[in-house]
């Protein structure tokens, strides 16, 4: 695996983990699925293994990703859903033919109709996005407080007051910035 590809951001919500394959949308954007093989890798990590992906399938995946991002953002700010984003999400959901399969260990697995069917995997992601945008799951869509990020994330905290898409990146950076600002204002008290 070439080391120069950016890492994946792993979350526990499929749809927003997927939208997080593009980060810093309002800054220096980082594309985390720059090649079809990286989409194959991402799908494998997320329980949707396929054995190949074409450039056209990668393009479709990115179109779905940005449509989910737009629809999730509109939901977070209580705006109307853009019709074009809804159309792409629905088309992907309808096209997918993945089946949920129960394992003896009581886990759910996804069985795709064929190992090269990226569209099936995208259908699962689209259905997951529909679930959270429709408000079916316990949580709230919110936007990351980082001005260069503004990623939509699914807040499942008790208080529903999570501010960052990811504590280890955006949250940490903000904490450091605040610390540095305090230190400049009050150099003796901040050690
Ligand atoms: Zn963020």
From TrEMBL:
Entry-linked Gene3D superfamilies: Jann2411-like domain
Regions annotated as coiled coil: none
InterPro entries the UniProt entry points to: ABATE, ABATE_dom_sf, Znf_CGNR
Pfam families: ABATE, zf-CGNR
Domain Zinc finger CGNR: from-to ranges: 140-181
Protein name: Zinc finger CGNR domain-containing protein
């Amino acid at each position: 695996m070439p080391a120069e590809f950016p890492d994946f951001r792993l979350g526990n919500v499929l749809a927003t983990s997927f939208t997080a394959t593009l980060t810093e949308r309002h800054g220096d954007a980082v594309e985390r699925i720059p090649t079809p093989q990286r989409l194959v890798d991402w799908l494998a990590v997320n329980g949707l293994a396929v054995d190949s992906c074409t450039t056209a399938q990668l393009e479709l995946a990115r179109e779905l990703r940005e449509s989910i991002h737009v629809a999730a953002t509109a939901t977070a700010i209580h705006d109307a859903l853009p019709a074009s984003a809804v159309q792409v999400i629905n088309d992907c959901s309808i096209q997918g033919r993945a089946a949920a399969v129960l394992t003896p260990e009581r886990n759910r697995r996804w069985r795709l109709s064929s190992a090269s069917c990226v569209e099936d995997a995208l259908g699962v992601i689209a259905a997951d996005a529909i679930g959270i945008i429709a408000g079916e799951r316990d949580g709230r869509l919110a936007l990351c407080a980082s001005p260069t990020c503004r990623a939509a994330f699914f807040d499942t905290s008790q208080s529903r007051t999570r501010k960052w898409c990811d504590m280890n990146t955006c949250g940490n950076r903000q904490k450091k910035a605040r610390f540095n600002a305090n230190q400049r204002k009050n150099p003796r008290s901040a050690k």
